Amino acid sequence: MSAVTLPVPFAPNSCSLKLSVNQRVNASPFGGSEQAVDLLNDRWLMSLELPAGYSAQGAAIEAFINAMRGQSNWVALYHFARQVPRGTMRGSLTMSSAAAQGASALVVTGGAGQASTTLLAGDLIGVSGLLFMVASDCVANGSGVITVPIVNRLRVALGSGLTVTWYRPTALFRLVSTPVVEYAPGLSSGVSFDFAEYIP
After folding, report:
1. Do 48 and 6 contact (CB within 8 A), yes or no?
2. What are the CA-CA distances from residue 17 to residues 43, 45, 48, 86, 160 (Å)?
3. CA distance 51 to 187
C-alpha cells in the first residue's frame, strides 16, 4: 500500500466534500427521547467529475485509476473548488497552542502581520495531514492569533508549533467507486470518482 500521485490532466469540473460523522443514536422505547453519542472519528467523503478530453488525457486518467488498485492505495486530495480561504488570513501559519483529541477549535497564529485577518465559514485549513473546515467566521486579534471553530472534531491531539496549511490543504483518500474511462475516436469520456478519507 502506498501513495499515488494525481496525473497532470486531473482537473475536475465538479467537486463536493461531505463530512461523515461517526455516531450512535438511541431512542427510548417509552417516551421517544433520543441520545446521540459522538464517537470522534469524522471522515471526509469527496466526489469528483472529470470532463471529457482527448484520448491521451484519458490514458493518464486510466493509469491513475488502475494505480489506485481499488482501495489498496491512497492519494492526497484538496477541495478543487476552494483551493484558498475566502477569508484574508495568509502567510506562514502555525498552531499557537496544543489541541486535545476531540477538540472543536484550533488556535492558530500568523504573527503580528496577520492582525485582524479572517477565516470564514467553509474555509479549509490543514494540519499534519488532517483537513479541517472552519465552522463560523473568525477574526485574528492584534497579535495575529485566531481561534478557529471547526466542523470536524480532532481524531488525534495536535501539538503547538505545527505548520497550518491554507493553500490547497489536503487529506489522504481511498478510491471507493469503480470509475472507468470510455473512448470514442480521438476522445475519452468524462469520469466520476468517489473517495473516502484514509485514516492510517
Report:
1. no
2. 10, 6, 9, 16, 28
3. 11
* DSSP string for 109-165: E--GGGTT-EE-TT-EEEETTEEEEB-S-EE--TTSEEEEEBSSPPSS-B-TT-EEE
In DSSP terms, 47 is beta-bridged to 16, 194
CB 65 within 8 A of CB 5: no
Domains of the chain: 3-78+171-197 (3.30.200), 93-165 (2.40.30)
Task: Please give the model's pTM, rounded to 2 decimal places.
Answer: 0.89
Please name the amino acid found at residue 152: N
Give per-residue pLDDT as tens, 143-171: 999 999 999 999 999 999 999 999 999 99
